[in-house]
């Protein structure tokens, strides 16, 4: 690894208390006159470009172009170059008119040009010879194909789709899940519906979530804020993005909030579901009564001018209120018997009520300060109270609350310098506090292999605090047919959290046969231990298999500083060919380690200074008619490591926090108990596990490339065929060491001695994070898109992929269990875990459609009856996600329960295939001239299909699987109907 320190290290330190920012004006200084770099799309805004020609096809150099937003009055101007080419950038989404004029020619005004975030609308203007006093008005047909866009994929759901596609949780994040290019687990039609979507692209779960061009996941994987669907104008998914964007190595998920206009608008809505409108939840035992259920969403919006054409304001409020069952499958079909023998109360299993109360506020103001400056300010607040959360193989004691109160403030300032230079500055300040309270905050968690967890939650009341800010500054210089762009991004983020597993976990995995007794199942082992039964094989009471516990420092805080610097060029070579090329440098500054003097390697958190990310993409219109485009590109992308991960390593030094893994025969091991566990006396001397980084640990890196052909089929319809390839490397995982080899394990690897005969008896397992993981992805995506025409818009897509490697991507940042890296089943030979990627779904079909009735009837009553209806749907049908069968025991003695049955490969099994079909039917009624009342009926999971979200993965130690292996332990919600009403003016 290059040990040289870049200049930026002098300005930014992840461990320092202050961050010194270099002057943003230096950005302009790096823009050299030679053709350099420019982004083909903006984070919030879009571009309008085009060619001005005479009717005979000759270029009209010097033609003036005036672009105006017809809703806000915003005006921008440009002049065509010698080839008749013009470009107007960083235009907020909306509807535009374009007035083109040239002496000796009749001016032309094109109206109705719709522009979305990240779009490049390419116009072809032909001016007839004539009087300048006569203006030719043309209603523009927005191009179906974006021949000026070079990135592989830029899918947009406009306000029409956002407001009409049925989304059970009424969270805009759900719209990312139904996007054609992503892969995802089953959609959530239950729970709060406001969590972070688990979506992947290229077999990788990395993702960056933006709202209005600034981060909505500064910590890394999880979203910060929830914003009402009614506050959004569009949502967007971008892949293979340009050098302007970074920090994540796969997807850019973007949402743009609504703005006020010169017109006054306001409205309100109410959506309701209850038990009478819902089918019985899946996986409930026949003896369990159907639980109660109710859900209400209500709120409203208001917008209008502060001062015509100069200032605008938009406001939104939404309230969530739900009481819904959490289905416990603890014990499976033997639930009642197992619960009775373990002393678990009936109200803590089967189903128990989960409540959800939340609201969100959005206020946004847009100001035209003067001819050269536009300022946008936004504030968001979200308050969420949920209790308890958790379905599957747990009891109510394990389920925890989820309380959070995130809020953020953002600003965007766009400044123009003359006709060809502009600067965009964005700022974000955000904080998020989370608390996870439990019923019994001090009792240990008891986990029975293949049965579930009960008694308590290992973390007790877990709390965390995350905060950060983001500064983005981009300078653009239009120089002929080059648009040069350079910029910086600075995002410091800190994460403070309570230490996990402070209550500890007792694990029961069963006992093999002994000369004096038969084999004992995990459940019977736990029952015997709880009742104090004597084990005839030992003459002592039955007890647990393993106990884990953390003790010591209660809170840990880590801070990272993510930085990005880029330079790029958007080169319009001619009217048919565009090239985008650029370079980005990523620097993810990590915090300093905290060393244990007895093991100095714990203080080493290496820094990666080598993250150079070239990007190259081309768009070619082979026919020149704007109806076909060929795109191809290549880029290198890096992924940041979140601050929470470093907490695990900084406290896991054996001094700040002692992480214990013990067996019951070990000196000092605590006795089994269902009450609080005391770690005193000899237990205080038990060796602690350690967490360290390998000196060569690097940031995950992805080589990504694509090729696309997109063709307009009909006036508003297009078909895109795309190939995507990813080669990911430096993916992280950890390996345990400080284990004594005592023989050969069933998987052919070493058999370790567990807690005995350690090479260094002062410590337990020593986990070392390394960057040796890799993954190869090849995918094909076909997308058929119908833009709104005749009232119908739809998007249908098929996604095929093959994902294989050594990746361990079980979460959005390749870290599981809240910062702890995944470990190989055979630490001596990780290649035994090569297999399908954790996000591998070979087949996926998606469909979203919106249809407004527009019939012409001579009879007015018939016309009124037939029109005013809106029918929408969404559909997802996909392969199940893969999983590995587990024995439920520590067969190789490394003190980890990730062993597979002999001969079973990594991710050899799959969850059942998934299919979701939702519908909405709405009817509009006009009230006077400007008001509308809409009645809405929706159905989620219309076929009432059992969509399994998890199964019992415990195969058992034998050659044949347990009877409960691969049986469903959790499922999506059964069919639900929802009724709603909306008023708009």
From TrEMBL:
<dbReference type="Pfam" id="PF13620">
    <property type="entry name" value="CarboxypepD_reg"/>
</dbReference>
<dbReference type="InterPro" id="IPR036942">
    <property type="entry name" value="Beta-barrel_TonB_sf"/>
</dbReference>
<dbReference type="Pfam" id="PF25183">
    <property type="entry name" value="OMP_b-brl_4"/>
</dbReference>
<feature type="signal peptide">
    <location>
        <begin position="1"/>
        <end position="28"/>
    </location>
</feature>
<feature type="domain" description="TonB-dependent transporter Oar-like beta-barrel">
    <location>
        <begin position="906"/>
        <end position="978"/>
    </location>
</feature>
<keyword id="KW-0472">Membrane</keyword>
<keyword id="KW-0732">Signal</keyword>
<feature type="domain" description="TonB-dependent transporter Oar-like beta-barrel">
    <location>
        <begin position="256"/>
        <end position="330"/>
    </location>
</feature>
<protein>
    <recommendedName>
        <fullName>TonB-dependent transporter Oar-like beta-barrel domain-containing protein</fullName>
    </recommendedName>
</protein>
<dbReference type="InterPro" id="IPR008969">
    <property type="entry name" value="CarboxyPept-like_regulatory"/>
</dbReference>
<feature type="domain" description="TonB-dependent transporter Oar-like beta-barrel">
    <location>
        <begin position="355"/>
        <end position="901"/>
    </location>
</feature>
<dbReference type="InterPro" id="IPR057601">
    <property type="entry name" value="Oar-like_b-barrel"/>
</dbReference>
<keyword id="KW-0998">Cell outer membrane</keyword>
<dbReference type="GO" id="GO:0009279">
    <property type="term" value="C:cell outer membrane"/>
</dbReference>
């Amino acid at each position: 690894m290059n040990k040289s320190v870049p200049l930026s290290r002098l300005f930014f330190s992840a461990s320092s208390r202050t961050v010194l920012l270099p002057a943003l004006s230096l950005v302009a200084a790096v823009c050299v006159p030679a053709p350099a770099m420019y982004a083909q799309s903006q984070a919030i805004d879009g571009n309008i470009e085009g060619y001005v020609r005479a009717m005979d096809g000759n270029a009209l150099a010097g033609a003036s172009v005036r672009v105006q937003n017809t809703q806000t009055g915003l005006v921008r101007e440009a002049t065509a170059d010698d080839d008749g080419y013009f470009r107007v950038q960083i235009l907020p989404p909306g509807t535009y008119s374009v007035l083109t004029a040239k002496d000796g020619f009749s001016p032309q005004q094109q109206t109705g040009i719709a522009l979305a975030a990240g779009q490049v609308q390419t116009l072809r203007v032909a001016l007839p010879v004539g009087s300048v006093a006569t203006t030719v008005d043309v209603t523009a047909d927005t191009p179906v194909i974006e021949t000026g866009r070079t990135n592989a994929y830029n899918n947009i759901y406009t306000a029409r789709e956002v407001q009409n596609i049925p989304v059970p949780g009424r969270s805009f994040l759900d719209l990312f899940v139904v996007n054609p290019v992503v892969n995802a687990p089953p959609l959530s039609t239950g729970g709060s519906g406001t969590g972070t979507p688990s979506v992947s692209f290229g077999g990788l779960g990395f993702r960056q979530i933006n709202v209005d061009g600034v981060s909505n996941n500064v910590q890394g994987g999880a979203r910060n804020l929830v914003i009402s669907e009614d506050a959004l104008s569009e949502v967007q998914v971008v892949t293979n993005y340009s050098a302007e964007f970074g920090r994540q190595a796969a997807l850019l998920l973007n949402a743009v909030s609504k703005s006020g206009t010169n017109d006054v608008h306001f409205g309100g809505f109410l959506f309701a579901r209850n038990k009478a409108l819902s089918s019985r939840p899946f996986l409930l035992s026949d003896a369990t009564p159907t639980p109660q259920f109710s859900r209400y969403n209500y709120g409203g919006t208001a917008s209008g001018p502060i001062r015509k054409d100069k200032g605008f304001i938009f406001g939104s409020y939404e309230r969530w209120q739900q009481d819904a069952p959490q289905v416990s499958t603890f014990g499976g079909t033997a639930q009642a018997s197992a619960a009775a023998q373990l002393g678990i109360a009936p109200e803590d299993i089967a189903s128990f009520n989960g409540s959800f109360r939340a609201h969100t506020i959005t206020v946004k103001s847009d100001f035209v300060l003067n001819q050269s400056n536009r300022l946008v300010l936004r504030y968001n607040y979200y308050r969420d109270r949920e209790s308890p959360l958790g379905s599957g193989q747990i009891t109510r004691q394990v389920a925890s609350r989820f309380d959070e109160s995130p809020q953020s403030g953002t600003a965007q300032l766009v400044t123009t310098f003359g006709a060809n230079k502009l600067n965009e500055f964005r700022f974000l300040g955000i904080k998020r506090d989370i608390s996870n309270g439990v019923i019994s905050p001090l009792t240990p968690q008891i986990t029975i292999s293949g049965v579930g967890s009960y008694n308590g939650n290992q973390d007790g009341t877990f709390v965390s605090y995350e905060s950060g800010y983001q500064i983005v500054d981009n300078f653009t210089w239009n120089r002929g047919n080059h648009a040069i762009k350079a910029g910086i991004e600075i995002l410091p983020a800190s994460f403070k959290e309570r230490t996990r597993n402070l209550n500890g976990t007792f694990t029961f995995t069963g006992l093999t046969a002994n000369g004096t007794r038969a084999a004992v199942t995990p459940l019977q082992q736990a029952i015997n231990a709880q009742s104090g039964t004597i084990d005839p094989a030992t003459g002592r009471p039955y007890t647990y298999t393993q106990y884990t516990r953390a003790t010591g420092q209660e809170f840990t805080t880590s801070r990272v500083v993510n930085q990005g610097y880029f330079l790029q060029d958007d080169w319009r070579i001619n009217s048919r060919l565009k090239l985008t090329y650029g370079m980005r440098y990523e620097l993810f500054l990590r915090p300093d380690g905290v060393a244990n003097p007895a093991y100095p390697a714990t203080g080493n958190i290496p820094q990666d200074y080598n993250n150079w990310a070239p990007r190259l993409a081309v768009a070619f219109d082979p026919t020149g008619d704007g109806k076909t485009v060929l795109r191809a590109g290549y880029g290198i992308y890096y992924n940041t490591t979140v601050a929470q991960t470093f907490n695990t390593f900084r406290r896991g030094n054996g001094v700040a926090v002692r992480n214990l893994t013990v067996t019951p025969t070990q000196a000092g091991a605590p006795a089994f108990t269902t009450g609080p566990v005391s770690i005193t006396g000899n237990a205080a001397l038990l060796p602690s596990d350690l967490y360290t980084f390998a000196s060569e640990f690097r940031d995950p890196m992805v080589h990504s490339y694509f090729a696309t052909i997109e063709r307009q089929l009909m006036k508003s319809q297009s078909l895109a065929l795309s190939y995507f390839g990813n080669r990911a490397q430096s993916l992280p995982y950890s390996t345990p060491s400080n284990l004594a080899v005592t023989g050969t394990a069933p998987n052919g690897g070493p058999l370790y001695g567990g807690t005995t005969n350690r090479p260094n008896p002062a410590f337990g397992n020593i986990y070392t994070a390394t960057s040796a993981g890799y993954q190869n992805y090849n995918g094909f995506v076909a997308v058929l898109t119908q833009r709104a025409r005749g009232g119908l818009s739809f998007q249908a897509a098929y996604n095929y992929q093959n994902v294989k490697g050594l990746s361990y991507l079980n979460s959005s940042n390749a870290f599981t269990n809240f910062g702890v890296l995944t470990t190989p089943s055979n630490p001596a030979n990780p290649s035994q875990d090569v297999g399908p990627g954790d996000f591998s779904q070979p087949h996926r079909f998606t469909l979203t459609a919106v249809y407004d009735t527009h019939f012409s009837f001579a009879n007015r009553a018939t016309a009124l009856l037939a029109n005013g209806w809106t029918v929408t749907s969404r559909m997802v049908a996909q392969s199940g996600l893969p999983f590995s069968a587990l024995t439920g025991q520590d067969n190789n003695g490394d003190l980890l329960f990730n062993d597979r049955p002999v001969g079973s490969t990594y991710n050899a099994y799959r969850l059942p295939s998934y299919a979701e079909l939702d519908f909405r039917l709405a009817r509009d009624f006009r009230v006077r001239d400007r008001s509308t009342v809409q009645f809405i009926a929706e159905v989620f999971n219309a076929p009432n299909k059992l969509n399994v979200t998890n199964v019992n993965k415990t195969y058992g130690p034998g050659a044949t699987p347990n009877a409960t292996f691969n049986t469903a332990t959790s499922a999506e919600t059964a069919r639900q109907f929802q009724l709603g009403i909306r008023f708009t003016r």
